[in-house]
Amino acid sequence: MDLESLLAIKHFRADQAQLALKRQQQACAVAAAAQRQAQGRLDNCRLWAGQLENRLYAELCRRIVKTRDIDEVLQRVGHARDRQASLALQLDNAVRRHEHEIQLLAQQREQHRECFQAQQRIAELVRLQQVEAAALRESLEDL
């Protein structure tokens, strides 16, 4: 295989690595957006649940209540806390996914760098070979 063919292969691989890098950057951006959305949902839920809890307990304090009323409030507060726990778990999953995508992005960047460097080395060899061939032709013409 001549150096020109090898350069074409290295160029193709560098292009493929560039495309893979762009795809991974996009996957990382999607994961970051999902993490921000999960954080927003959790923050909103915490705010809503805190307001609900305060309102329900305030209503209990304003009047004479039965055990059933207290149980209903506790049940509603429990559901709100369960919802918060579920959203916190979703956030944890989103954070882990984002961290994983960041690791993959770093690996993809390294692979792209290696492919580009290999392409540059082969291009330099091709250039040197062309210079050498031109010098040889020149010396043959001088004879």
Automatic annotation (TrEMBL):
Pfam family for this entry, one: YscO
InterPro entries: Flag_assembly_chemotaxis_eff, T3SS_YscO
Entry protein name: BscO
Organism for this UniProt entry: Bordetella bronchiseptica
Gene behind this protein: bscO
